Amino acid sequence: MNKDMLLTVDRRKPEPLWHQAEKAIRERIEAGEWPPGTQIPAEDKLCEWLGVSRITIRHALRNLESIDLLRREHGRGTFVRNASVVAGPRGLTSFTTEMAAIGLKVGSRLLSQEIVPANAAIAAALGIEEGDDVVRIRRLRLGNGDPIGVQSAHLRFDRVPGLIEQDLSEGSLYQHLERLYGIKPIEATETYRVGPAGAEDAALLGVVEGSPSFIVERITVDARGPFETTLSVMRGDRYEIRSVLRA
């Protein structure tokens, strides 16, 4: 890294030093000199190049971390963050709505839509008998053109007659369900765990088989009861969960 290419701070300016340092670092990121995944120079190097104190640099780095441009890894350093989906407190929304709300261009690739028999877990989630027909819709979900997750939704066949013939390649599944069947979700239960990406999902997500992933199980209900259960495998480096805890 050529330090002459870095902006420097000017103590004659009324602008705070930490803000000038933040702008200098951010410019390098936005110019592509430090692409996503790159480890930026250590704090002492940044102090030397910018001519500011460690406190000033830490203030700048904290601000850049708070707007998701950087991430700190304990014992390793500070890295330019990959574009990621941050899931925090939210209402009951579809993936499409959730992505749009955080400014990502939503994309989806329909992998399959078919009728399959419900296994024991799906039957229990939907309140049907094992072996009953369900509609399975499998999609690759994208944010700004990059793969984020693989979602497999299972819906009660008796609630969505004819769905299998519909074009579900575009738009929100919940919008289709409301338009076609008057189904409006009112509550969902989600369970998160960390697990390895299987070979098929890993290939779709562009990661190595066995890479850590968020496994998200969701059961969604409307006024008549559970109508959908979804299993999502989300890229661990592009999906986060953030909660705010208050006393």
TrEMBL record:
Pfam families per record: GntR, UTRA
Biological-process GO terms, alphabetical: negative regulation of DNA-templated transcription
SUPFAM superfamilies (alphabetical): Chorismate lyase-like, Winged helix' DNA-binding domain
Annotated ranges, domain HTH gntR-type: 15-83
InterPro entries in the record: Bact_HTH_transcr_reg, Chorismate_lyase_/UTRA_dom_sf, Tscrpt_reg_HTH_GntR, UTRA, WH-like_DNA-bd_sf, WH_DNA-bd_sf
MF terms in GO: DNA binding; DNA-binding transcription factor activity
Keyword terms of this UniProt record: DNA-binding, Transcription, Transcription regulation
CDD domains according to UniProt: WHTH_GntR
Matches recorded under PANTHER family: MANNOSYL-D-GLYCERATE TRANSPORT/METABOLISM SYSTEM REPRESSOR MNGR-RELATED (PTHR44846), MANNOSYL-D-GLYCERATE TRANSPORT_METABOLISM SYSTEM REPRESSOR MNGR-RELATED (PTHR44846:SF1)
Name of the protein in question: GntR family transcriptional regulator
Organism of derivation: Kaistia hirudinis
Taxonomic placement: Bacteria, Pseudomonadati, Pseudomonadota, Alphaproteobacteria, Hyphomicrobiales
